Amino acid sequence: MSALPGASWSPGETLSDSPERWEVAESRSEYDGGFIQVRADTVIAPDGERFERTVVEHKDAVGILAMDEDDRVLLLAQYRHAVGQRLLELPAGLCDVDGEPPVDTAARELAEEAAVAASSWELLLEMFPSPGFCDERWWVYLARGLSLADASDFVREHEEADMQAIWVPLDEAVRAVLDRRITDALAVAAILAAATR
């Protein structure tokens, strides 16, 4: 038995995140930038300690791991200004249509970004990419039964106008993740999740 600190998980126990909300004494808006807002919260811990936390409010998003009948996955090479790199990513987008279920957002984004439709949708992952400061949640879908989609109504602008689609065998995508050649968090998580199913 290890002498390391912390409780040990036991077989039969459910290993799961759990909802919990600490009291907020004060919340003030610091920035409103359209698709992101920043607020400063004064949080009260259960032991009474007060501390400040900055929270970025961001719309939820979807990601799509599109896999064809040969187990090739669709990657999009896209320039990302914030990190100064062209990253290999999955088709993805914001849940920015009120009332639209995430799976419908995923289908729309796959058609818009890659001109691909899917007949089969499976929720692969649900995740918070940066929970230390941001409330954004991602729904990540495995899309199969692929065919061409009509994306003629969608105009790709800015970085999206320069995206390149690449079909890669899943096992090669896994190697690229493990060799740190694919570093986009969404792509890393989805590729590894699909490979272990």
How many β-strand runs? 10
Helix content: 10-25%
How many angstroms does the end-to-end distance come to? 31 Å
Mean pLDDT: 93
Q: Which architecture name of the largest domain does CATH use?
A: Alpha-Beta Complex
Which blocks of ≥5 consecutive residues have pLDDT under 50? Answer: none
Q: What is the chain-wise order of helices and strands?
A: EEEEEEEHEEEHH
| CATH homologous group name of the largest domain | Nucleoside Triphosphate Pyrophosphohydrolase
The fold-level CATH name of the largest domain is Nucleoside Triphosphate Pyrophosphohydrolase
Kindly estimate the percentage of residues that lie in beta strands according to DSSP: 35-45%
Main beta-sheet annotation? 4 strands, mixed
Count up the helices.
Answer: 3
Domain count: the total is 2
Key terms:
NUDIX_hydrolase-like_dom_sf; Nucleoside Triphosphate Pyrophosphohydrolase; EC 3.6.1.13; three-stranded antiparallel sheet; four-stranded mixed sheet; ADP-ribose diphosphatase activity; NUDIX_hydrolase_dom; 197 residues; 3 helices; single chain; alpha+beta
Explain what you see:
Helices cover 17% and strands 41% of the residues. The strands form three sheets. Strands 7-4-9-8 form a four-stranded mixed sheet, with helices on both faces. A three-stranded antiparallel sheet has the order 1-2-3, with no helix packed on it. Strands 6-5-10 form a three-stranded antiparallel sheet. The radius of gyration is 20 Å and the shape is globular. The two termini are 31 Å apart. The protein has 197 residues and is of the alpha+beta class. The mean pLDDT is 93. It folds into two domains: 23-58, no CATH class; 61-195, Nucleoside Triphosphate Pyrophosphohydrolase (Alpha-Beta Complex). It has three helices and ten strands, in the order βββββββαβββαα. The longest helix has 13 residues, at 102-114. It has helices spanning 102-114, 170-178, 185-195; strands at residues 23-32, 36-44, 50-58, 61-66, 72-80, 85-89, 92-94, 116-127, 138-148, 164-169. It comes from uncultured Nocardioidaceae bacterium. This is ADP-ribose pyrophosphatase. It holds the Pfam family NUDIX.
